[in-house]
């Protein structure tokens, strides 16, 4: 089995909404719970206040919009995946959050009026859309003058430890695996360079732009299976890649991950893997 012919191209394809529907439950269970701390940090940097109107673009199950609602903002979460929207709605109902709603919407063409929101944000959403400049312009358009736009995205993939563990395990099983392309990079890392993110926010029409690089995502893994679950739930592309493997090869990848995590852990606590973050904020 050879992966080198098709895998790199997949990193530049945009999985359809149905692909995100398929991983919504896993994203909600395995990925979103670890996002709360830096989501809160981003909202603080954006100056979110109680009663502010907050729009979350490409929200997923609510990694950014649920913390905003808990802080007392009036929230509209949007995503092009209906199942992601449903997951958010379930959380709102279970937590009894007020003034929090969700709608299916494309980040490239937001179906809301100009100058509507005090803060517009996107966490791991607009970072991976195919026409990011257009999506950023839309975020600026719907934000009121003097309001803020917040974008949280991954930094350098070379420092994204969960991803690098996963790639290393794949290479151990399938040596011909081509790995990640770098020119151009996968959509997930198109603003991995903080200077690129800063420039795109300025070009979208924002002023006083700052990009915070002091925060990291922390992923706890007790086993190769847990890291496997996290990777396959975080993005449909991971499932596309391992879909090329046989059942035995998939099991071997999980075993290799087990061994790598055992070396990282101290024997009493789960292994901790980190990923760099770029948190960009600007004012309209």
Q: What report would you give on this structure?
A:
This protein is of the alpha/beta class and 284 residues long. It has one domain: Vaccinia Virus protein VP39 (Rossmann fold). Helix content is 42%, strand content 21%. The protein has 11 helices and 8 strands. It has helices at residues 7-10, 17-31, 36-45, 65-70, 82-95, 132-141, 161-173, 194-203, 224-234, 236-242, 247-264; strands at 53-56, 74-79, 100-104, 117-123, 143-154, 207-212, 216-221, 271-283. Strands 1, 2, 3, 4, 5, 6, 7 and 8 form an 8-stranded mixed beta sheet that branches. Helix 7 (161-173) crosses helix 11. The N and C termini lie far apart (51 Å). This is Methyltransferase type 11. One of its GO terms (molecular function) is S-adenosylmethionine-dependent methyltransferase activity.
Briefly characterize the structure:
With 284 residues, the chain is α/β, with parallel strands linked by helices.
């Amino acid at each position: 089995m050879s992966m080198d012919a098709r895998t790199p191209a997949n990193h530049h394809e945009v999985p359809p909404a149905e692909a995100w529907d398929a991983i919504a439950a896993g994203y909600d269970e395995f990925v979103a719970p670890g996002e709360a701390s830096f989501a809160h940090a981003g909202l603080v940097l954006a100056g979110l206040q109680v009663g502010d109107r907050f729009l979350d673009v490409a929200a997923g199950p609510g990694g950014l919009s649920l913390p905003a609602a808990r802080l007392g903002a009036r929230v509209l979460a949007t995503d092009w995946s209906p199942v992601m929207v449903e997951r958010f709605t379930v959380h709102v109902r279970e937590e009894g959050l007020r003034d929090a709603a969700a709608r299916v919407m494309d980040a490239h063409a937001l179906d809301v009026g100009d100058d509507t929101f005090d803060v517009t944000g996107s966490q791991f959403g607009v970072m991976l859309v195919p026409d990011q400049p257009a999506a950023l312009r839309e975020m600026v358009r719907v934000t009121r003058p003097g309001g803020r736009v917040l974008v949280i995205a991954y930094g350098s993939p070379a420092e994204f430890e969960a991803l690098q563990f996963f790639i290393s395990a794949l290479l151990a099983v399938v040596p011909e695996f081509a790995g990640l392309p770098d020119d151009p990079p996968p959509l997930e890392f198109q603003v991995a360079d903080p200077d690129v993110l800063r420039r795109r926010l300025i070009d979208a029409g924002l002023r006083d732009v700052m990009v915070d690089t002091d925060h990291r995502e922390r992923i706890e893994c007790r086993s190769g299976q847990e890291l496997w679950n996290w990777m396959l739930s975080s993005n449909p592309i991971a499932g596309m890649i391992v879909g090329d493997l046989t059942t035995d090869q998939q099991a071997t990848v999980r075993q290799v991950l087990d061994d790598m995590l055992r070396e990282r852990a101290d024997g009493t606590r789960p292994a901790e893997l980190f990923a760099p973050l770029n948190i960009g904020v600007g004012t309209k």
